[in-house]
Amino acid sequence: MNRRNFLKTGLGAAVAGALPMSLVELAWGAKDSERFTFAYISDSHITQIKGNRFVRNWDRGLIRAVAECNLLDPRPDFVIYGGDIAQLGKPEEIDHGLEIMSGLRDKVHYVMGEHDYYVDLGEYWRKRLGPDWYSFDHKGVHFIVLNSILTYPEWMHRKWDSGMARMKEMARLDNPNGSPFMVGEEQRKWLARDLAKVSHDTPIVVCSHSPLQKIYKGWNFWTEDAEQIHKLLAPFEKVTVIYGHVHQIQYNQLGNISFYAVMATAWPWPYPNSYAQADSRLPKLTVPMNRADPFFERDATGWQFIDVHTGRADVHYFLPSNSNRSVVFDERRGHPVDTRYQELAARIPPQNHY
Amino acid sequence: MKRSKSNRWRAGCVAALALGPVQADEFTQQDLERWNQEFMEVVREGDRLFHGGFPSKNTVSCDQCHPNASNTHPETYPKFQKQLGEVVPLWRMINWCIQNPLQSEPLAADDARMTALQAYIHWERRGVKLEPGKH
């Protein structure tokens, strides 16, 4: 890389100091000749207060992620936006979020979140951004974007007073009257057809909004048909699932699939084990993010770089108010590990959530 | 005179025993039910305020950061909050949240809405042992 370019601005220098330098050396792709990097921004929850007034805190999170992402040098090949660009799916919120995103210098692939969807079943989002499930190939890696936040048709098409009434029900994370997320049969059929064209040694990266695994149903850290998706992905040697929604660091390995959650730019969520009245299953592998300190507005928020060297993902968490974290696939152990905090003795007090 | 007063007192006691419920040191199943009902009504009001019912000036609500009031840790208060610079009870931290993430006006300590928010927060944390001062 050209170090002079990287350090061309004062802010660039600050970012360079905060980044693990190996990240900049490394690149990704199935073969050395096809190395590439990409960035991942998610869960900005842009919220309209009234007219042209939006919640400042959530705006700032996305503005900061876009600004930092633009400082990357070498450039990532593209950016993935992991869903929930809006809070209540309003056109004003999607437009305002996309206006901030338009400051990015790179192409963006978008994932649908439930906050983008339930007011009009994704109509405005699709009008601005295109289909909500699709795949593409990039330098030897097959990328799949799923809409994993669908739910049972009986709930979706219940006699709602309005689309906004349905949106507000789904927007409440801890809603006992909510409904579990799912990919659904139509999309699973499409996925089977899409995967039929891909050789089993091609690295696969799946991007979804909800975790394609079952962690805690009460907050929809959950996808109802996760096992059926796993089955479709089982024949492939290297599969990585990257998801948003949970606003926290999570990672896991189930069979051939490595899972990584990405941070929100808006606000952090507690780990489900912090709720004393219900059981949950946070993956044992996960070393939690630092507990949020509300006095720092950007604490426990962030965005990510991801590299897919040798077809496996390394996720570098860029955390404005916390030490950056790197969770990388360990070939020897066969699962993701945190490069600094994985061993019990290495963990620090704020990572103890209770 | 002395004896007669004592007799009157004794007679009063007997009458009270006969009537039953006037003793202060006993309560009935009905009392328990009523007290629980009164409490749960306030919990429900707190739940409503917590989930968008509070007149937040920027529309942000408590549950957006604290689903099921988790990560509020009522069992650790009063505790030292370094940015407030002193040991504070839970309601001071609730007001901090109302003023900052919610960009709204703080409540008086004895405002019924503050009581309701605390009732809901404590209810969701029931069964967890007290650990005042813990971080």
Q: Can you offer a commentary on this structure?
A:
- The complex is a heterodimer of chains A (354) and B (135).
- With 354 residues, chain A is α/β, with parallel strands linked by helices.
- Chain A has a single domain, classed as Purple Acid Phosphatase, chain A, domain 2 (4-Layer Sandwich), CATH 3.60.21.
- Helices cover 25% and strands 19% of the residues of chain A.
- Chain B has a single domain (28-124), classed as Cytochrome Bc1 Complex, Chain D, domain 2.
- Chain B is 49% helix and 4% strand.
- Chain B has helices at 2-19, 29-53, 90-99, 112-124, and strands at 79-81, 86-88.
- A two-stranded antiparallel ribbon of chain B has the order 1-2.
- The chains are: A alpha/beta (354), B mainly alpha (135).
- Chains A and B meet through loops of A and loops of B.
Record keyword descriptors for this entry.
heterodimer; A: alpha/beta; 6-stranded mixed beta sheet; globular; disordered N terminus; B: 135 residues; mainly alpha; Cytochrome Bc1 Complex, Chain D, domain 2; two-stranded antiparallel ribbon; 4 helices; 2 strands
Percent of residues in beta strands of chain B:
under 5%
The tally of strands of chain A reads 15
| Quaternary assembly | heterodimer
Mean pLDDT of chain B: 89
* Helix and strand composition category of chain A: alpha/beta
| Number of extended strands of chain B | 2
What fold name stands as the CATH topology of chain A? Purple Acid Phosphatase, chain A, domain 2
Radius of gyration of chain A: 19 Å
How many distinct domains of chain A? 1
Q: What gross morphology of chain B would you assign?
A: globular
How big a fraction of the residues of chain A is strand? 15-25%
Distance between the termini of chain A: 43 Å
Q: DSSP helix count of chain B?
A: 4
| Largest interface in this structure | A-B, 28 and 27 residues
Can you count the helices of chain A?
Answer: 11
Tell me the CATH architecture of chain A: 4-Layer Sandwich
